[in-house]
Amino acid sequence: MESLVRSVTHVQVAIPVGGEDEARAFYGGLLGLVEVAKPPELAKRGGCWFELPEGTCGQLHLGVDPDFRPAKKAHVAFVVSDVTKLAETARPQGYEVLEVQDDETEQVYIYDPFGNRLEFRADD
Questions:
Q1: Phi first, then psi: what are they for 55, rounded to 5°?
Q2: Which of 106, 78, 77, 110 minimizes the C-alpha distance to 96?
Q3: Which end of the chain is more exposed for a tag (fewer CB within 10 A), N or C?
């Protein structure tokens, strides 16, 4: 059967209430993603959205969850130009970095300010 899915428009990661400034520092500051305005009706709920580079799935939505629990296993995987540089930049800023032993791809897990696990892989 042919898949009905054609693409992904966005991925969503939960953040706690009031976490927008920390999210901006991590996703905008450390990762260099560009924040985009949420539609006015959705902006009332809090959170923030970031544009992902062209050729990816579109956007990263950070949604406020009043019952927030960090995603320790489920994660988004990003391809980055320099895994080592990202890890070396994240550590002194206090972000937890977990080295991954993989013979095929250079990668690390970095936890956002809220404890959500994110994977970063080398640009092959």
A1: 90, -5
A2: 110
A3: N
